[in-house]
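Thread: "does anyone have the structure for this chain?"

Original post by V.I.:
We have the sequence but no experimental structure in hand. Need at least a predicted one for the grant figures.
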Amino acid sequence: MNVKAYQNPVLTFHANKFHLALASLTINLMALALPVMTLQVYDRLLVSESLGTLRVLMSGLVVVTILDSIIRLARSYVINWAGAAHEHTVYCNSMRHILAVELSAVEEEGSGTHLQRMSHISKLRDFFSGQALTTFIDLPFVFIFLGLIFYLAGGLVAVPLSVLIVFIALAWALGGGLRLSFKARENADRERLNFIIEALDGIHTIKSMALEPFFQRRYEQYQLESSKANFLLAKMNLNTVNYSGVFTQVMTIGIIGFGAPMAMEGRITLGTLIACVLLSARIMQPLQRVLGLWGKYQDFRLARDNVDKNFNLPVVQCLDPEDLGGNEGELEIKDLSFYYGDDPPVLNNVNLTLKRGEAISISGDRSTGKTTLLKLISGLYLPKRGEILVDGVEASKYPARELVKHVGLLPMEGIIFRGTIWDNLSSFGAYDTEAVNAITSLLDLDVDIRKLPAGYYTQLEGSVSDAIPPGLRQRIAIARALVPKPRIILFDNADRSLDKEGYSKVYRLLARLKGKVTMIIITDDKNMQLLAKKEYLISEGELLQREDAEVSEIHDVLPYQELRL
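Reply from O.Q.:
Generated one for you, tokens below.
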């Protein structure tokens, strides 16, 4: 287990193990008060009719009961607070780790898989908050109670001892079944969650092709398997609780059944018999908690393995910002190769050198690796072989906050995050008003945004339900990428989601930036392609320069109809 991932001295409230242990010892010692008092009342006080002593014992018992309640409440508060603090810490560390993981490692598994693993964090709290510690501290008192029964009643201890042996054997057998049930539920829930995420991602396609009934039937099947797994797990947990209750009753009946004849024969007193009954009831309480913990431990092992899988994803190792180069807009690709999983290479031995101000376009058939190349340059993917140098430093070595100042990726369909328009433009406060206004004015975004009722404070959900046009959404996403003023701009068919007005403004901005920044343009639009000085083609994983390409200079913005040739 990656222990450091579960700990953070700033966020975690650490329960003092010594205090918890002391509280548990005190509670168990106080548990002896009632049996001892019962023994004294029946064997001495009733015989001697000593009312004064009885009042003292009753007063002492009341005080012990009150102290016991206070200590139990305090222990419960400490344990629950430590568990909540630990859960909070692990959730934060898990999210921080996922955000720092190499993108290709995250994409190898579905989003539902990572969400499912994070949902297991709440199942770890009992074993990191002190709950397990107090349970195991209670366990030795089982033998102390057995020893007291042996001291008071001799051979009568064989009854609870026999019941305990059978109970422990049954609990051990149930543990293996519980683990299998937890694993079956985990698999069923993961498949169901992955299906939900995939269906929501492709909801437009599902509706456009009228596939709702088909997907509904598939989901019902996943839900059926999940329900079966949850039913079997609940059944086993309930059986475990029932078994512990049955064994408690069996132990009490056994003590009375074998102890009553001993009392009649005069081998033990009536007070001793009642004290043994009370002690036998105390014996089962720690065992019931241990059994519950044993069942939780089966779930804990699976949860810990799943959480560790997220923490074990490879993190991109970045340099200190002071060790980075300048921001000149130079790009160099050396012997770059990349592939997904065991598939054939998407890119093979790619070499490219661009100085600041150079602009190229890249074309090629679909699925030839054009977008993959841009994601590699922007540091989202790591090369399988070779290196990508941005201003003399490997792209993957830049911290994310620094890389966006060097490389700006304009995707085909920009992502809008839940928040206001200003949150999206400023990357949730990462950039000040001056930096944001400099870009919004160039794209005339400020004019369109101010027309909205709430202006920059218009709330967006990042879905089609947002009350802004798709073209404006895309311009907001483009502006967000340009706010850090990157020297290298990667244009990945970002014009496809633009409307007429947005296309003209984005084109005008790129034309103004031509010669000042380095640009790599991937587009089917001929006028956008004309912004480039050189044209490259990706074919069979290789990047080839097209010597026969006719590239001309565009000095003015053409009307929209002509731009869409």
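V.I.: this helps a lot. Residues 1-13, 549-565 have pLDDT under 50 and may be disordered.
O.Q.: and Residues 471 and 497 are 6 Å apart (CA to CA).
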